[in-house]
TrEMBL record:
Source species: Undibacterium terreum
UniProt name for this protein: LysR family transcriptional regulator
Pfam family, one: HTH_1
Keywords noted in UniProt: Activator, DNA-binding, Transcription, Transcription regulation
Keyword DNA-binding set for record: yes
One of the GO biological process terms: regulation of DNA-templated transcription initiation
GO molecular function terms listed in the Swiss-Prot or TrEMBL record: DNA binding; DNA-binding transcription factor activity
Family annotation (InterPro entries): LysR_HTH_N, LysR_subst-bd, WH-like_DNA-bd_sf, WH_DNA-bd_sf
Gene3D superfamilies reported for this sequence: 3.40.190.290, Winged helix-like DNA-binding domain superfamily/Winged helix DNA-binding domain
Domain HTH lysR-type: 1-58
Length: 310
């Protein structure tokens, strides 16, 4: 198996046809077909099939595509690490951020990278926590902002901030009262619109509720922050979340947030990298900048409900 075969296969999947991939790769189509056939023979499985939509990966092809991407990225990182200057890092850095943290961190970080390291190309992806963990393990991303649930021992972990979770509902919701603090048992009486269990926030909430001897009986599971916001605005229920992903709506007065009494519901936000794959100079520079930006956001109060852990 050769690296060029991996590049060819990824290009075919990305472009959806042999002819388009051949043009992009600047090779003739018969040569591309031959390389694909050799790769399939070596693996003992069909990787692609023709359909009305073009060339699509088989189940085996989908699995191989993820590994091929990870291998090609690590090779690119290795080349960059050799070529980079420590004083002027360059190259591509892939950073993953969960949906519920991107509202506070993503834009300030993008601006900071452009200001401090214009020659670094930052590829930022917003995903569920479980997806980010898998991508970090496989090497498809260099860094990931994750929530410390005690299960991150396989990564190099740097603490960032601790976020308080609050009871949030539409400003005129039927599920609110005039209390300044909502007791946990009262908060659980409303239909709760929460991310699914694969999301980093949900297990933390479930654990705190169990420790208090209570249970969540009426839940609407929604994994999209945009859809969750729409459900809150339709007054289908309330939520328990950090303020960050709903900050714009709270600032406009469309949603309100209340502290939760009787239990301290917080989550620790950390920055993770692989223990097995060395960071390039560019990735190391972005790692330091993420921590610096998080510290500044806490100090200025722009990351509401967050306390610096550094």
């Amino acid at each position: 198996m050769e690296l060029r075969q991996l590049r060819y296969f990824v290009a075919i999947v990305d472009h959806g046809s042999l002819s388009r991939a051949a043009r992009v790769l600047h090779i003739v189509q018969p040569a591309l077909t031959q390389q694909l056939q050799q790769l399939e023979e070596e693996l003992g499985a069909a990787l692609l099939h023709r359909s009305a939509q073009g060339m699509l990966p088989t189940d085996a092809g989908k699995l191989f595509y993820e590994h091929a991407q990870a291998i090609l990225k690590q090779v690119g990182d290795a080349r960059s690490a050799v070529a980079q200057s420590a004083d002027k890092p360059t190259g591509t850095v892939a950073l993953g951020i969960p949906q519920s943290a991107s509202g506070a961190l993503a834009l300030p970080l993008l601006k900071a990278v452009r200001a401090h390291y214009p020659e670094i190309s930052l590829q930022m992806t917003e995903e569920l926590t479980g997806n980010l963990i898998e991508q970090l393990k496989s090497g498809r991303i260099n860094l990931a902002v994750l929530f410390d649930d005690g299960q991150l021992s396989g990564f190099a972990v740097k603490p960032m901030v601790e976020e308080e979770m609050m009871y949030i509902a539409r400003a005129d919701s039927q599920f609110i009262s005039k209390r300044k603090v909502i007791p946990l048992d009262k908060a659980l009486q409303a239909p709760l619109i929460l991310p699914g269990l694969q999301h980093g926030v949900r297990p933390r909430i479930e654990n705190i509720v169990r420790q208090a001897g209570l249970s969540i009986d009426n839940v609407i599971d929604i994994n999209s922050i945009a859809i969750l916001k729409s459900a809150l605005m339709a007054d289908m229920g309330a939520t328990i979340l950090p303020v960050a992903p709903l900050l714009s709506e709270i600032e406009r007065g469309e949603l309100r947030a209340w502290p939760i009494g009787g239990a301290k519901i917080v989550r620790s936000v950390v920055l993770c990298s692989s223990k097995n794959i060395p960071l390039t100079n560019a990735a190391g520079a972005v790692e330091r900048l993420v921590l610096e930006v998080a510290r500044e956001l806490c100090a200025s109060g722009r990351w509401l409900g967050a306390r610096n852990l550094m």
